[in-house]
Amino acid sequence: MHQTSQQFNGANEVGIQAFERLAGIAFAGAERLAALNLNTARNLLEQGAATSRALLDAKDPEALVTLQTRLSRTDTREAAEYSRRVVEIATQTGATVSKLVETGVSELRLSLDQALDRAADKAPAGADLALNSLRSAVTAANAAFDSMNVAARQANEVAEANLAVLAKLIAGSKQTPPRAR
Q1: What's the domain count of the chain?
Q2: In the prediction, which pLDDT does 176 show?
Q3: Residue 109 belongs to some domain of the structure
Q4: Is residue 181 classed as helix, strand or coil in its secondary structure?
Q5: Whole-angstrom Cα distance, residue 60 to residue 62?
């Protein structure tokens, strides 16, 4: 009985440590996102003031059109860059969480296999059917997790490919606007 109690305490400790690591990862991602948002808000305020001054300084309609074209392209680039950085933060945080989960699942698989082996050694005669059923259930759960893991990796690859396309679009939009005639 005492050994079982120690095993439960050990399992609880492992669970608490995993939760602490997960919470740390989530807070680090939230911290990066908050810093991005604060920097973006500060930049928007500064740009708003600069835009207001530039609009007031425009002397003729041609200058206004040129300014409007330039501002429109700048806003589009900055919005795309902001979106790219948000997705990057989310992707990196998700990858870190995924690694943590994969490690936990690997450890769980190993301990479950060891527990099943110990149970098989101590099981009474005729318990083979129950143990085989349990092993089949574990195998099915492992296969389901592996399938979900593959799907998550594919979704991550799609997100990274979309980020690459977005980065190319941003790089392509850095050209200077044509002059109004």
Answers
A1: 1
A2: 47
A3: yes
A4: coil
A5: 5
